[in-house]
């Protein structure tokens, strides 16, 4: 059998589509390196996110395509560089993702912080902005209460760092327990400062934990930056859906693309036998996603360790990274990263 050339390999990879982006790996610029030695082939694929939900599938299809052209020893390695839109939302920040909910108490902050950590655990550079100005909870969930923010020589606020993510919360400025009353312009100015006067550094994802409902922060955020996309956290009940629909409508009104729906407190898994009980009903999040023509990003169980670890300042993804709940957060984080890649690549010119 004859030797293979780099062109043979690239031609074969032109026949492999990214399963989500529906374009071939070569056109997407994902083939970073090809080394051919006789019939031995080594390729490096540059994924669009380290949290790629379809890495295994891509690997299988690349291997099969190369074996079809006669490769006898195939080595596939992966790198990742998160793509942003052509015009970045903030300098150095590739994606701004707003996490919203129709009403309070559905676990939006819990989901936001665990998603941020899960993305960072997958290898992405992540920031978390506590946009819940009226009821900030991220400092507590990350054990950062009492820590004070500082300003660098360039007069930029330096975010705090915890568990691999950069964090900014009003709780690290305002005295604890003090109720904050904000008028529209002050609030707008604060959000502006939190976005623009902060040394976020290079980030793949900036997750913004919004206040519940639909309101001023959402509006300011969308006016001050090109939010890449919004996700909605809901619980399974039908009544929660009505509120969540309002949140979806709010994203639409402020022209923030909806990336998907996450269902929190989806079920309770019995710690001894694993049997699932659907305490709040079943399928509300999926129905919401369908009715809003958006992706269902996954479900997170109702679980004592999720609450306990959040209260203790070490979110479950840090406290028990191998627990099923942490795995559920990682699964959702991968789906979210996948949706962001789809969104950004559909707006980029092809190679
Ligand atoms: N999956 C879960 N299992 C168990 N407890 C949870 C889960 N998700 C959130 N909680 C708990 O529910 C409470 C409310 O969660 P959280 O503060 O994240 O909600 P929220 O929607 O952000 O609320 P608000 O908008 O009012 O700030 C917290 O005590 C949290 O630990």
Automatic annotation (TrEMBL):
Keywords: ATP-binding, Hydrolase, Iron, Iron-sulfur, Metal-binding, Nucleotide-binding. GO terms for biological process: iron-sulfur cluster assembly. CDD domains: Mrp_NBP35. One of its GO terms (molecular function) is ATP-dependent FeS chaperone activity. The keyword Zinc does not apply. Pfam families: FeS_assembly_P (PF01883), ParA (PF10609). The keyword DNA-binding does not apply. Residues 6-76 form the MIP18 family-like domain. ATP binds at residues 102-109. Binds and transfers iron-sulfur (Fe-S) clusters to target apoproteins. Can hydrolyze ATP. Homodimer. In the N-terminal section; belongs to the MIP18 family. In the C-terminal section; belongs to the Mrp/NBP35 ATP-binding proteins family. This is Iron-sulfur cluster carrier protein. The lineage of its organism: Bacteria, Thermotogati, Deinococcota, Deinococci, Thermales.
């Amino acid at each position: 059998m004859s030797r293979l050339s780099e062109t043979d390999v690239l031609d074969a990879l032109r026949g492999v589509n990214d399963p989500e982006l529906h374009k071939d790996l070569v056109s997407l610029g994902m083939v970073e390196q090809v080394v051919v030695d006789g019939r031995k082939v080594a390729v490096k694929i540059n994924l669009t996110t380290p949290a790629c939900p379809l890495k295994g599938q891509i690997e299988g299809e690349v291997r099969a395509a190369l074996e079809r052209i006669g490769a006898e020893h195939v080595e596939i390695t992966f790198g990742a560089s998160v793509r942003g839109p052509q015009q970045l939302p903030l300098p150095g920040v590739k994606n701004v993702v707003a996490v919203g909910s129709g009403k309070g108490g559905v676990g939006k902050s819990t989901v936001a912080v665990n998603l941020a950590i899960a993305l960072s655990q997958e290898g992405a550079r992540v920031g978390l902005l506590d946009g819940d100005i009226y009821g900030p909870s991220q400092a507590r969930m990350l054990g950062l209460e009492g820590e004070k923010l500082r300003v660098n020589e360039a007069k930029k606020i330096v975010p705090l760092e915890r568990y691999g993510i950069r964090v900014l919360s009003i709780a690290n400025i305002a005295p604890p327990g003090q109720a904050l009353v904000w008028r529209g312009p002050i609030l707008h100015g604060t959000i502006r400062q939190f976005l623009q006067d902060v040394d976020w550094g290079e980030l793949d994802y900036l997750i913004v934990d919004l206040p519940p409902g639909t309101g001023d922060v959402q509006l300011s955020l969308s006016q001050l930056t090109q939010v890449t996309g919004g996700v909605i956290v809901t619980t399974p009940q039908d009544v929660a859906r009505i509120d969540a629909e309002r949140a979806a409508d709010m994203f639409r009104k402020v022209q923030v693309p909806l990336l998907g729906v996450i269902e929190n407190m989806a079920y309770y898994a019995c710690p001894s036998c694993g049997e699932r009980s659907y305490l709040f009903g079943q399928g509300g999040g999926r129905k919401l996603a369908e009715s809003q023509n958006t992706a269902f990003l996954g479900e997170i169980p109702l679980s004592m360790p999720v609450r306990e670890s959040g209260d203790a300042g070490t979110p479950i993804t840090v406290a028990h990274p191998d627990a099923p709940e942490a795995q559920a957060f990682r699964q959702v984080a991968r789906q979210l990263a996948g949706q962001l890649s789809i969104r950004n690549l559909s707006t980029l010119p092809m190679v």
